[in-house]
Specification:
Blueprint (H helix, E strand, L loop, with lengths): L5 H12 L13 H11 L12 E5 L1 H17 L14 H18 L6 H9 L9 E8 L3 H21 L3 E5 L6 H8 L5 E10 L17 H4 L10
Antiparallel strand pairs: 1-2, 2-4, 3-4
C-alpha cells in the first residue's frame, strides 16, 4: 500500500472541504488574499503554456454595478452564450444534475411545483448569491475548446487556493448566456469568449443553502483499467 504524503493529504482535504457556496457574507476579502489566490491559480498547466485565461475581478461598487446590470439583462435580453451550452443531460448526467438541484431546493424550502420559489432561487445566481467579489474568466475564441479546457483547470486551482485561505467560492456558468451584456459591460473584445464567473467571499454558514453537500461517483463508475498496474 502506497504511503500517502502530507502534500497528498492536504490536497485531498481541500478537495473534500471545497463546495459551491450559495450564500455569502458581505465582508470584502483583502486584496493581498485575492492576489495570493490568483498567483496560485496561475501555476496550472495549459496547452503549450498558452495560459489563455484573462480574469476580471470586481469589488465593492463594481460588484454592485455588475449585479444590477446582470439582473436587468436576465429579465430583458435573450440568451446568447459565446460557447454553446450542452444540448442535453442524459442518463446518469441528468440524474446527478437533478439530485443536486433537489438537494438545493430541499435545503432552502422550495417544494415540487413551486415555480415562483424555484425562479427566485434561480435568480440568486445572477445576484452572485450576495458575494462581494466576482472573477470573470474569458479565453481567446481562436483557441476553441482547448482554451476552454485550460480555463477549467484554472477555475479548479482558483477554488482550491481560495479554500486553503478560508475563502468560499462558486464557479458559475449561469452568467455565460448573457455574454453580450458582459462584453459591453467590461468592454471585452469580440475575439474572446466568456467562459464563466467565480463568485467568492466569506461563507454565510448559517444560511440553509450552504447546508448540503453533493456526492462524487466511485472510481468504479468513471475509471476503466487497461492493463494491470503493480501493487503497492
Amino acid at each position: 500500500m502506497t504511503e500517502l504524503s502530507d502534500a497528498y493529504r492536504t490536497l485531498a482535504a481541500l478537495l473534500h472541504a471545497r463546495h459551491s457556496c450559495r450564500a455569502f457574507l458581505p465582508e470584502p476579502i483583502p486584496r493581498s488574499t485575492i492576489e495570493a489566490i490568483l498567483a496560485a491559480a496561475q501555476r496550472v498547466p495549459s496547452w503549450c503554456n498558452a495560459q489563455p485565461w484573462q480574469v476580471i475581478v470586481t469589488s465593492g461598487e463594481e460588484t454592485e454595478r455588475l449585479r444590477a446590470g446582470l439582473i436587468r439583462a436576465v429579465r430583458t435580453a435573450p440568451e446568447a452564450p459565446d460557447i454553446p451550452f450542452p444540448t442535453a443531460y442524459e442518463g446518469i448526467y441528468r440524474e446527478r444534475r437533478s439530485v443536486c438541484g433537489w438537494q438545493l431546493y430541499g435545503a432552502v424550502g422550495v417544494e415540487r411545483g413551486d415555480r415562483e420559489g424555484a425562479r427566485a432561487q434561480m435568480l440568486e445566481n445572477f445576484r452572485f448569491f450576495g458575494a462581494p467579489h466576482v472573477a470573470l474568466i474569458t479565453t481567446p475564441a481562436a483557441l476553441g475548446p482547448y482554451g476552454v479546457l485550460d480555463c477549467g483547470g484554472y477555475v479548479t486551482a482558483f477554488t482550491l487556493a481560495a479554500e486553503a485561505l478560508g475563502v468560499a467560492t462558486i464557479p458559475q456558468a449561469a452568467v455565460a448566456p448573457y455574454a453580450p451584456f458582459l462584453h459591453r459591460h467590461f468592454d471585452i473584445p469580440d475575439d474572446r469568449w466568456v467562459v464563466c464567473a467565480i463568485s467568492f467571499g466569506r461563507e454565510d454558514r448559517d444560511h440553509p443553502a450552504n447546508a448540503f453537500r453533493t456526492e462524487r461517483a466511485p472510481l468504479s463508475e468513471v475509471v476503466e483499467w487497461r492493463g494491470t498496474p503493480p501493487e503497492g
